[in-house]
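Work Package 3 (structural annotation) set out to generate three-dimensional models for the target panel prioritized at the project kickoff. During this period the team completed the workflow that converts sequence records into discrete structure tokens, so that structures can be stored uniformly alongside our sequence database. As a representative example, we reproduce one entry of 142 residues exactly as it appears in the project archive.
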Amino acid sequence: MGLEGVAQLLVAGFELQAVRSIRDAVRANLLAAGGVEGPLGTITNRVPTAASAEPTPRIEPRLVHRPDPRFEPREVIQPQPDRVIPDQFAPIEPERPTRLISPLLPPWKQLPPPAPTPEYIQVKFDPPKADANTGTMLDLFI
């Protein structure tokens, strides 16, 4: 076993001692709080039951008032002809129009711009002179 193995064994021993001391401290704390040592070294706490609680609690039902439902007819609102709006509250024309008219027309009301007319280039073609010996006359018709 090398030096590294001995160091690992020492560290493991110190960690085991720390775990044992924590376990013993928890055990002493539980016994001091009124715990009883049970079988296999376990500690159980005595929990007071509901029957041993002093004084005995009294549970009273909550008082609930449930009124009888009332069904009333729907309220009817009828216009009253005697209510007339005075002239001082009559609507008047605004000083400037509320909707401003844009000088630009929307795209769906505009006609598309006219398409430019294509310019045709006229090419003048002079057929070659016919020569009966070389067969160029036939080449023009094929």
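DSSP finds two helices and two strands in the chain.
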